[in-house]
Amino acid sequence: MEPIVFQPLYMPRVWGGRQLEGEYGRRLPDDGPFGESWELVDREMEQSVVAGGEFVGKTLHDLWVERREEIFGEGLPDSPRFPLLIKVLDAREDLSIQVHPPADRADELGGEPKSEMWFIARAAVGAKLHVGLRRGVGRRDFERAIADGTVADCVHSIEPKEGESIFIPSGRLHAIGAGFLIHEIQQNSDSTYRVFDWNRPGLDGKPRELHVEASLASIDFGDFEPGMDDASGSVIAECEHFRVEKLQFEAGESVGNRNVGRFSILSVLEGDLVGVGGRFGKGDTFLLPRGTGSLASAGGAVVLRTTLP
User: Fold this and answer.
1) How far apart are CA 122 and CA 18, in angstroms?
2) Which of 223, 115, 117 is nearest to 169 (CA)?
């Protein structure tokens, strides 16, 4: 079976930009700010559609329901929808300070738990991620900061380097700062609670909705000053929901699923992969079905490989 390529879904965001054009050669729908490209998604209102080949026109949901074992492998979760959501984020401006509901509170809050990881593909000089709380900040301090508009002073900030990554578990307060291009791998969830949005209007000119009560119920108030994750091995993120590897290939080295009983998702960060299904270059994300033959690096390549644990 050949690699399966899906049509990306581009999401306009008040904080978005146009890096997907310049960095990855994408053709965006219009001249607005696009903050997110949803590369693989299976949700009721958003669906990835196969762009060509044997399954052209089929949705990711169709494949997951109708061809699960054939394409994805055996022993997979008995979930009604594909369990991962793969994105590329272009943050020209700061994202809101936000949190995703933890698994033990999500139902009562009317949301879905969402753990994710970020891989830093591009970072402007001085660009910052805001993750976790500054040491010593308690819930009462945070509530006072919400009231007086100083939430940003409570959040821990770090300046990551290109090629680094960080895991964001449900319950971790976080925001991506201006100046990043980020690959995000996450649970299939779209529950985000904004607690502070820098006092700016949305694309419609009105203040964006905040979710203060849900945020306070979700934030891990013991999560102080996390750092970027250890990048000494090929596995850069692993949890009960996904496993992400950063793989570097010399010219002629290959990657595939011929003797593997599970699918994988490949995102090309640098270089090209050539083989069954054609050529895949910088910025391409695609699904390798179980048993797919090898793709070789044309002249060296760096790839993110995402699988289920």
Assistant:
1) 13
2) 115
**Contacts of residue 213, Cβ cutoff 8 Å, sequence gap at least 6:** none
Domain architecture of the chain: domains with CATH: 6-218 (2.60.120.10), 235-307 (2.60.120.10)
User: By C-alpha distance, which of 7, 306, 20, 11 is closest to 181?
Assistant: 20
Structure tokens at 178: 């201006």
Sign of the four-CA dihedral 86, 45, 34, 215: negative
The pLDDT score that the predictor gives to residue 201 is 78
Q: Tens digit of pLDDT for each residue in 136-168?
A: 999 999 999 999 989 999 999 999 999 999 999
Whole-angstrom distance, CA of residue 11 vs CA of residue 85? 14
**In percent, how much of the chain has pLDDT > 70?**
99
Integer-rounded Cα Rg, in Å, for the chain is 19
Pairing, β 235-238 against β 116-123: unpaired
CA distance 179 to 90: 8
Could you tell me which residues are beta bridge partners of residue 307? 243
Q: Rounded to an integer, what distance in angstroms lies between the CA atom of residue 41 and that of residue 8?
A: 9
Tens of pLDDT, residue by residue over 91-135, are 999 999 999 999 999 999 999 999 999 999 999 999 999 999 999
Give the separation between CA 90 and CA 168, rounded to whole angstroms: 18
**Phi-psi label, residue 212: left if phi above 0, alpha if psi -120 to 50, beta otherwise:** alpha
In the prediction, which pLDDT does 259 show?
61
> How many alpha carbons fall within 13 Å on the CB side of residue 177?
16
**CA–CA separation, 113 and 276 (whole Å):** 37
For residues 239, 240, 241 and 244, what is the CA-based torsion angle, rounded to 10 degrees? 30
DSSP state at residue 130? E
Burial class (CB in 10 A: 0-12, 13-18, 19+), 135: exposed
For the chain, the maximum distance between any two Cα atoms, rounded to a whole number of angstroms, is: 58
